[in-house]
Specification:
Number of strands: 11
Number of helices: 11
Shape: globular
Strand content: 15-25%
Structural class: alpha/beta
CATH class of the largest domain: Alpha Beta
CATH topology of the largest domain: Spore Coat Polysaccharide Biosynthesis Protein SpsA, Chain A
Helix content: 25-40%
Number of domains: 2
Oligomer: single chain
Radius of gyration: 20 Å
Distance between the termini: 41 Å
CATH architecture of the largest domain: Alpha-Beta Complex
Length: about 350
């Protein structure tokens, strides 16, 4: 905390993380997790308080959490925070209407058109196009593409001509950017919503009513915060060098079957439907679905010997603390976790 009693925001914390000793990669992920919680915790007061007051509440929560981990020494490096700048383009005039309380029952149309979908974007186009095309076929009309300061020209062209909502950020906030930018809080207040990474694409055999299926599970399991796709690991190619590590990492998500085709398992930003932001969401209060409601994580199907120009550009410009599977070796913290499970 600085002399005036102000607290830093996530952008300055990311700068701080780079200067702290220890495992910066894992620490940075922890800071992002804390900020996600702070954003959600503050969202319920957004209607009653001004935007600046809400942001201050988020920062207060964040300061308390990080000080508990690292003490106060880091805050001396920081000055007055500034909020991340976001430029928003809304081609759909229906978007941005006043939020209403969710109905007790969700009709087929509500399960698609009225459920906003938020996709963090960064320097990769091919899987994003496949995802958006699936969403459109499924009837989703409110799609938010949250761009993390991308520089890949074909992606920038795509975003500039997209018929969907585009939020442009001035730096890379990673997979939690829909929360860290405040986009979810502004646009999904009082509503169920979907968050998905841009490289998660439903399987060819996946029914288009996936979100309706997820909602029915949320209605039945009242203690669960989100429901999303299980990820296929049964068809990974031998040409992907991390395939064995992926299978070892992911197999735990397929163990606790609570009913046929439904598994209690953590979800980060894999495609999932979330309850409205009227309570703090927790990563471990989640369900994943089995076949036919499964998806593929497309980077797991990459052959490093045959990288496309897009793959090469992405790898050269990726933040190593955010991208985990788009490399030839595991991040240290994931490798350590796997080693501990084997011991």
């Amino acid at each position: 905390m600085n002399e005036s009693g102000d607290v830093p925001d996530i952008e300055q914390l990311l700068d701080l993380v780079e200067r702290l000793e220890g495992d910066n990669e894992r620490l940075r992920q922890r800071v992002l997790e804390i900020m996600e919680w702070a954003e959600e915790a503050a969202s319920t007061t957004a209607a009653a308080q001004g935007d600046a007051a809400v942001w201050r509440l988020q920062a207060d929560h964040l300061r308390a959490e990080v000080e508990a981990i690292h003490g106060s020494r880091g805050w001396k490096l920081l000055g007055w925070p500034r909020r991340a700048r976001a430029r928003i383009r809304r081609p759909n005039s229906e978007v941005g209407k006043s939020a209403e309380e969710p109905a007790a029952e969700m009709s087929n149309s509500q399960a698609t058109a009225d459920v906003p979908v938020f996709v963090p974007v960064r320097d990769r186009l091919t899987p994003l196009k496949a995802l958006v095309e699936w969403l459109e076929r499924a009837g989703h009309t409110e799609i938010w593409l949250v761009d993390n300061a991308s520089t890949y020209p074909p992606l920038l062209d795509y975003l500039s001509t997209s018929s969907h909502n585009v939020v442009r950020l001035d730096r890379n906030f990673g997979h939690r950017s829909p929360w860290l930018s405040g986009t979810v809080q502004r646009e999904a207040a009082g509503r169920y919503f979907v968050i998905t990474d841009p490289d998660i694409v439903p399987d060819d055999e996946c029914p288009l009513d996936a979100v309706q299926h997820f909602r029915s599970l949320l209605d039945r399991y009242i203690d669960i915060d989100k429901v999303g796709f299980g990820l296929r690991i049964d068809d990974l190619p031998d040409t992907y060098p991390l395939a064995p590590a992926v299978q070892e990492w992911e197999e735990r998500f397929w163990k606790d079957e609570v009913e046929p085709g439904v598994f209690r398992a953590d979800i980060d930003t894999t495609f999932a439907l979330y309850r409205p932001l009227d309570r703090r969401h927790q990563e471990n209060l989640a369900l994943r679905t089995g076949a036919p409601y499964v998806a593929r994580h497309l980077p797991w199907y990459t052959n490093p010997a045959e990288l496309s120009a897009e793959d090469i550009y992405y790898r050269e410009h990726a933040d190593s603390s955010i991208a985990n599977w788009d490399r030839d070796e595991l991040p240290r913290w994931k490798q350590r976790w796997l080693d501990q499970q084997r011991d």
